[in-house]
Structure formats: C-alpha cells, structure tokens
Amino acid sequence: MDRTTATLADYVTGLSFDDLSENTLLQARMRLLDALGCAVGGYHSEPAAIARRLAAAASGTPAAQVLGSGAATSMEMAAFANAATIRYLDFNDTYISKGAGHPSDMLGAVMAVAEAQHASGREFLLAMTIAYELFCELADLVAIREHGWDQGAFVVLGSAAAAARLMRLTRAQTADAIAIAVTANMPTRQTRSGELAMWKGCATAAAARAGVFAALLAREGMTGPTAAFEGRHGVWEQVTGPFTLRPMGGKGRPFGVERAAIKYFPSEYHSQAPLWMALKLREQAAFEAIEALEVETYYTAWSEIGSEPEKWTPRTRETADHSLPYLLASALRDGEITAATFDEARYGDAAMQAFMQRIRIVENKEFTAQFPAAMVTQISITTKDGRRLVERASYPRGHERNPMQEAEVEAKFRLLCRDAMAPAAAGEIVQAVRGTAQAPDFGALLARVRVNQPG
User: Fold this and answer.
1) How far is Cα 316 from Cα 298, in angstroms, rounded to an integer?
2) Are 142 and 243 in contact (CB under 8 A)?
3) Looking at the predicted structure, is the pLDDT value of residue 191 above 70?
4) In angstroms, how far is CA 204 from the centroid of its own chain?
C-alpha cells in the first residue's frame, strides 16, 4: 500500500478509547445529540421517505435499524437512510477549512454499523471520533471544492474507516477498505451548483453507504488498489494534488470532532453569521423601510450562496436554504429562520422575490484573505429615508471561537423533537446520550429514537 493509505490504516487501527479526553467525549456527545435532533426534524421529508422505502426492500445479516422507525434493513441501506434523514434540514454540523462539509453526515453510517455489530457506547464514540478526524484532516489539507469535487470524498473515507474499526478489521483489511472507498467514490460538485435538487441532501448519504460497503468487501477478503492515493491515476493525480498527512488527534492533540461547528440556523453554514447580523439590523430598520442591502463577504460564501442567478429566484427548498438573498430577506421580514422558512409558499412569494432584487452580494478580497481563520462578512443597509446601517461579524454562534454549550444543543434537540415525540421521550434520549460511554450496547440508544407516524 502507498504511504498515505498506510498512515491512515495505522491511525484507524491504533487509536484507543483512552486517547479521548473528557472534552473530546463531551463534544462527540453534543454532535451525536445534534445529529439525532436533525434526523427527527427531517424524518417526514420526501427524501427520507424515499430512502426508507428502498431500505424496506433490503435485508442484512446482521441487520441494522432505520433511524426513527426501527425497521430492519442492511447496514448499507440503514447508513443511507439515516444520513439522508440527518442531512435534510441542513441543520447538522459543519467543518470549514480549505475543504468543507458536514462530518455528521457520516454518523448515519457509524450508527448503522455500531448498532448491527452490537458495539458498546465507547466503541461508537471512538469510531465517531475516527470518522471526524479523517474528514477534518483531509479538509484541512485539500481545497477539494476548488477542484470541482464534492465533500462526499471526505465522507466516504471517514465512513469506511469508522465501519472498519467497528467491524474490528485488521490493519490490512482497513487499508483495503480505505483504498476501495476512495478509488470508487469521487463525486463531482454539480450536486451543489445552480438550482439544487433533493440530491443535495442525499449525495453524502450515498458516500456514507459506499463507505460501509467498502468495509464489508474488505472484511470478506476483497483487496483494494495498492496505491489509491499516490499511484498513477490515483487520488493525488486525479483529484486533490499531493498532500502530507500531519499527526492527527490523540496524545494530547485535539480532535476534529472538537472543532466541527454546530449550526444555530437551519441553513447553509456561510449564512450563519449574516443571519445574526440581519436579525440585529431588523431592530433598527423595518423590512418595508429598506431600499437596498449590500453584502461584502469572502469568496467561498459569495461563490456558494451568493453568486448564481438561481439564488435570487429559488424554486426548490434545497436552493432556498443555499440562497443568501432569500435567507436575508426572510430574516429581515420574519425575524427568524426555521424549517417553515423553506415552505414553497414563502420562497415563491412575490414580495420576497421583489425584495431579493434589492440585495447585492460581492466578494471582499480582504475578507477572502482572512478565510478560513475568520469568516468576515459585512452587511450595509440603506433605508428609504436615507439612513445607512452597517454590521460586521466573523464567528457565528456554534463556531469553535463562539461555541454552543451543551444546554443549548439539548434545547435545539428538544425543539426539533417537539412535534415528533412526547417531551418525556425526548428527555430520555438526552439522558441516554449523556451516558453513551457507559452503554454496553449502543443500539439501545438508537431504539429510543422513534418518530410519531402520521395518523
């Protein structure tokens, strides 16, 4: 195997639960609860329902549960259904660096394999930490978005690694799982360009499923490419360019799971700080009093949610939650951003469409130079009576420089569960997550996550 594959396999098989600090465990539990809340909130969405229908036609030995319903299926299909459900609201955690994405998309796979393998809570937390670490390490090293590739490249790697650890694969088998996963699953970024479809929230679910399948293949003896990263036509040559892995989390070094940002609003991450500013500006100027609004931001935010014409005329939910013009207009008009913000009647409203044409978004190269260390955005509002109001921010609530606390994450979870289960049931899940490290069988925690069915 090449050096990169060997280094990753050594890390995945060598890390132990004792390497995780108390803060690592706390941050992992917070992101687990956050992902479970997002899954409950997204359970009745159409993409999640499609995934459950497909999962119902599959079986596995051992079987895995579909999150929210408890229906039995294969590990791969549970990974897909779980991840699609977690991802739907665009409310789950995010990691921003040279590369970016949603590490908790991998939890659909980690949950499925841990439950099927009757892993303990400690084993789950270790596998989760490994998945996040590989995701965040690659994101720190590779600006994959700028190469036209999608974050599923990080997700499939972390999912395969976590599944390999939970299946107790050898070092050689783990290397094969990693090699198969990254060679066979390099997704293009068309998923997140222009007008967005349901696939926006399911592409990484497909990557999570593929990571589990790669580990299953390796467990059965399937060997993978011997130079998946560094060889001819490998990942370096075709996708990322060369990179050198650094010492990863453990032995006193913090883990990626401690740095992933938890979202305060159910919208694309680069909109989080602008939305805080919009709500603050709303206190100074009514929606009807605004003549024009200008946003200056860093290149990634401009390119992702403020550059394409489709973002000024969103026609799908997925486009709306990635449209900075629409999000700002909604915050200024409604004073909040919730799941209801993305109802078709709202983003198709003529008054909203007209207001969005008053919004201008531009790149500020000074702000770009500070990214990703800082995420600087400035909003300037001109009112109809001639006033100019300005706000600037860098670190939204939930960023590692402005972290959410455990109580805030628990409150977010309870809010997402409000219409889906009894308050007592939500409280039991909160308590179970707090005790994850003491759980002899992680599946017992997942068995508590049951969403009320229509009718």
Assistant:
1) 25
2) yes
3) yes
4) 9
Share the mean pLDDT of the chain.
Answer: 96
From residue 165, give the alpha-carbon distance in Å to each of 153, 248, 376, 378, 437: 19, 17, 39, 44, 17
CB 354 within 8 A of CB 360: no
User: Using an 8 Å Cβ cutoff, are 243 and 293 in contact?
Assistant: no
Distances (CA, A) of 404 to 155, 331, 388, 394, 434: 24, 21, 32, 15, 16
For β-strands 359-363 and 100-101, DSSP reports them as unpaired
Residue 34 sits at φ, ψ, to 5 deg, of: -60, -45
Which residues on adjacent β-strands are paired with residue 293? 359, 381
pLDDT tens profile 73-87: 999 999 999 999 999
Cα separation, 382 vs 390, whole angstroms: 9
Identify the CA nearest to 427 among candidates 449, 444, 396, 452.
449
Please name the amino acid found at residue 5. T
CB neighbour class for 111 (10 Å; exposed up to 12, middle 13-18, buried from 19): buried
Q: How far is CA 453 from the centre of its chain?
A: 26
Q: How far is CA 172 from CA 136, 145, 176, 248, in A?
A: 23, 30, 6, 20
User: Token digits for 156?
Assistant: 């499939």
> What token pair was written down for 428?
């039991």
Segment 133-152 mean pLDDT:
94
Q: What is the pLDDT of residues 313-352, one digit of tens each?
A: 999 999 999 999 999 999 999 999 999 999 999 999 999 9
